[in-house]
Every structure is written in C-alpha cells, then in structure tokens.
Amino acid sequence: MTAPRPRRVVLAGASGFIGARIAEAYRDQGAEVVLIGRTGPDALWGDQKAIAALVDGADLLVNMAGKSVDCRYDAANRAEIFRSRLDTTRALHEAVAQAQNPPRLWVNASTATIYRHADDRPMTESLGEIGQGFSVNVATSWEEEFFRGTLPGTRRVALRMAIVLGDGSALAPIRRLARFGLGGPQLDGRWPATRARLAAGTYHRYRPRTRGGRQRFSWIHLDDVVGIIRFLEDHPELEGPVNAASPNPTDNRTFMASVRRAVGARFGLPTWRWMLEFGSAVIRTETELVLKSRWVVPERLQSAGYTFLHPHHDEALTAIIGGHSAPRDTAPALGKIGP
Questions:
Q1: Picking from 183-187, 216-220, 327-331, which range would have the lowest pLDDT averaged per residue?
Q2: Of the candidates 66, 63, 67, 64, which has an alpha carbon nearest to the alpha carbon of residue 92?
Q3: CA–CA separation, 120 vs 255, rounded Å?
Q4: Which residues form the DUF1731 domain (predicted)?
Q5: What pTM did the predictor assign?
Q6: Which residues are within 8 A (CB) of 306 and not within 5 positions of it... i.e. 6 or more apart?
Q7: What's the burial of 306, exposed, middle or buried (CB within 10 Å: 0-12/13-18/19+)?
Q8: What domains can you pick out in the chain, each with its CATH number?
Q9: Among 101, 144, 202, 322, which one is most buried in terms of CB atoms within 10 A?
C-alpha cells in the first residue's frame, strides 16, 4: 500500500517571530510545511506561478506576512506596512481562487488594534467598535482584502491578535527596561499634535485619556496562537474575524509590575508621555504601542470551547522568562493536526 502523504501546510511569513513557531509546531507533528517569503525557500513573493502550485492541494494556508509596526510611522514605513499586508494577501487570494483543490482553511493574520481605544468595556467580535487612525485603517484594509469575493471551497478566519508574548518580539524591550529600573507604568498625558501627524492619522490622542497607567493590556501567549490555529481546523463553525487574546486582559500598570517580578527588579520608574515621545523617536517606534488601551476578549473562541494554555499574564511571563514553554505533548489536545 502507498503511504498517505503528509498534510501540507502553506505558511507565508515564516521568518517572523510568530511564523517561525507555527512552522516548528506543525513540522513536529509530521506535516509538510512549505514556505512563501521574500527569500524563499519554496516560493518567492512575485512568483505567482510558484505560489499557486504550493497552495493548490494544501490542507491549510496560514499567512503571517507583513512589516512589523514597531517602527516610526513616516511616509515610507506607512506605505510599506500597507503594501506588505495587502499585496501578499492579494497574491494568496488569487492562488486560492484559481486552485483546483483549494485549502479547506485559510487563517490570515489581523490585529486587535482594529478596535477603538477602550477602557470602559471589552471589545468582542459581536459588539466591538472599530477605531480610527492609521493603525485601524491598516487593519480594516487588510481584512477587506482578505474577505473580498467568494472562495467557496475555503473557510477564512482573520485572526485579530493581541500583543503576542514569547521569548522575543514585543517582550524583549520591555524586559530590558525592567532590568534597568525603567519598568514602571507608561503614563499618558498632553503632547502637541503636528499637522503632518494629524493628516497621516498617527497622532495618538484619546479622549478622555486613561490615567495612571490603567490603559488596558490585551495579550496572548505564542503557544496559544499555535493552539488556536489547530483548534480552528477542528471547528468549521468558526469563520470571519476571531479575537486571539487571553480571556484575562490586564492593564499597563499591573503588567509592568509582573514583568518586574519576573526579572527580579526591585523597582521600576514610571515614564510619562513626554518621555515616551522623546524615547520612541530615539529607538524608532511609536507611543501608540504602549498608550492605546486595548481591551479585547475572545468571545467566539470561548463560546466554541477553546481552553487556553496560558490564561493569566503572570504565569505566562514566568513561563517565558524562566524558559518554560507549554509541554509539546499537550498540543494535540487543543485540536488534532491530522484529519
């Protein structure tokens, strides 16, 4: 008898922090993981014929491609943030539409930043309010491109991810700040708006401002990103936008205190808006990343029965900083990789 072929997972954006972990997890389960990226190895962006060949017959398509938003929102970076999301999603859409055997499930990255600054109530898929500004425009344009038209053989899920915690990415600079005694809350306040920032939609102004470092902090552990994708494979009732966030969001002040405990820092000085504005200009990032109140909960995942591996931020931080990920043999319980 001929042995059955391994499941084929097409992964776009595998060079990033999240994509690399997804590729590792599926390979550990015996799947054939093929990659699309700027440098290959299996298909390059711009080579539509090669992309189409990988997608046709695939069991799962996951797209995590896109320039990091941890940068200054100047004109060049804003254009690249848009282009890197829309062009790659458009290329995959074309490949899926033309496939004789399209993937049953396409999971595309999105962001929980699509919701408004919220410190009054949590944002869910059913009752969440879409925000305003550059970052929100990126998110809504990305999802519009993803969901356009009909793809009758493929279920589509936009994974609205909160800040992903793992050994790297967003947590790395926060850990460094805490170790150097700057791990206190980030405090909003007055800051003058320039005409250019207002026109570009990148001025971070929230009315009323969240005081005292109490802006909400929604997050998700990297292991749960993988677990959710597996769970989606086994739950065909889930399609459309899905919030990928812990069911227990915290706030900036509490989160930073937990980071200090995890790294063994005895104190953490607070940073005010004027300090953040000057500092973000030096390290080439934006204050929105720490001042926007993101209060997002996973209504649809919880209703479907997903069990989070890391539901609480203090435990998640201890696991990451202590070097302990979720045991690999717990992953199949979240949803089989095989049919």
A1: 327-331
A2: 63
A3: 18
A4: 274-320
A5: 0.91
A6: 227, 228, 231, 298, 334
A7: buried
A8: 8-334 (3.40.50.720)
A9: 202
